[in-house]
Specification:
The protein is mainly α. It has two domains: 1-169, no CATH class; 170-306, no CATH class. It is built from ten helices and two strands. A hairpin with a 3-residue loop joins strand 1 (51-52) and strand 2 (56-57).
């Protein structure tokens, strides 16, 4: 049996879709702010000002517009709260996904010996979502809004037919499906993200180093009055600062360490599930795997490895 994201509840797809849109919105806003700051520094450093009349300078006016654009983007971002909505909906999506997997393959606390597993699943789901609502998550079942389908947001089942089918499968089928479609899939995802983060770290580190070296060279030349490079130095400094800020916002360096550790843990869990975990130990093994891949665990690793 194959179990994919398409087999998860409608509520997962809503939260996942909103998280993706809000992440893109938050990242684009930050990118625009940094680019406008660098553009403003570039325009104010140009030797040609394009004077109109006695005093009006076109290039300086464009630089002022660039800085005004930074303020406008900042105010709009504060009102839209894209980052907050992104993180809340990502937490909701991953919580729904994890709990659904645990239910479908008899992971704790929905193991084979539990009576009324469906009711327990619904209870745990509603309790977790209630905690997210307390901190600002907008439940589409209560208030259909962004990305909500009026016909599905309020009536979509929490337990999908595919989840029921997988739960009714024998242990060997559930184990094979979980290992292939969840554990290995997540392990490959963390590996890909580690590779992407390493490439990005190398690119931005090299860019920052190059800009800093150029600024150092110009500063030394200016020290000995070889050149008057004050404006260019300001532009190089602004560009290096923008690159550094972007790298820090994207958290490439700490994510390399965190994702590598999660990948190692998943590899160890994969080996254990294939060789040692019995049906009696299965529920706890699934619970531990879901703990490892949770966003909270990754954030904890990022904070303590950065």
């Amino acid at each position: 049996m194959v179990f994919r994201n398409a087999d998860l509840p409608v509520l997962f797809h809503h939260a996942d879709g909103v998280a993706i849109r809000r992440q893109r919105q938050a990242v684009n806003a930050t990118r625009r702010q940094l680019l406008l700051l660098v553009l403003g520094a570039l325009l104010t450093s140009l030797p040609w000002h394009g004077t109109v009349g006695d005093s009006f300078q076109i290039v300086s006016a464009l630089g002022a517009l660039a800085y005004a654009g930074v303020l406008l983007v900042t105010f709009r971002s504060a009102g839209q709260r894209a980052k907050s909505h992104w993180q809340l909906n990502r937490s909701a999506a991953e919580f729904i996904k994890s709990l659904s997997w645990r239910y479908a393959v008899h992971g704790a606390p929905f193991d084979s010996g539990v009576a009324g597993a469906a009711d327990l699943f619904a209870s745990r789901m509603e309790a977790g979502l209630a905690e997210l609502r307390k901190v600002g998550w907008e439940d589409p079942r209560e208030n259909p809004g962004e990305g909500a389908d009026p016909g599905q947001g309020a009536t979509g089942e929490l337990i999908t037919p595919a989840m029921r089918v997988l739960r009714d499968k024998p242990f060997s089928a559930r184990k094979e499906t979980y290992v292939r479609d969840r554990l290995i899939e997540q392990r490959n995802w963390y590996h890909r993200r580690t590779v992407v983060s390493r490439r990005a770290t190398t690119l931005w580190s090299a860019t920052i180093a190059l800009l800093t070296l150029l600024a150092l060279l110009l500063a030394v030349l200016r020290t000995f009055s070889v050149t008057d490079s004050g404006a260019v130095l300001g532009l190089l400094s602004a560009s290096a600062a923008a690159c550094l800020a972007w790298s820090e916002i994207r958290r490439h360096q700490p994510l390399i360490s965190a994702h590598s550790l999660v990948e190692e843990d998943l590899a160890a869990m994969h080996t254990a599930m294939e060789t040692m975990v019995t049906e009696q130990q299965w529920a706890n093994a699934v619970y531990e795997t879901e703990r490892i891949v949770s966003p909270q665990h990754t954030d904890w690793l990022v904070r303590h490895r950065s």
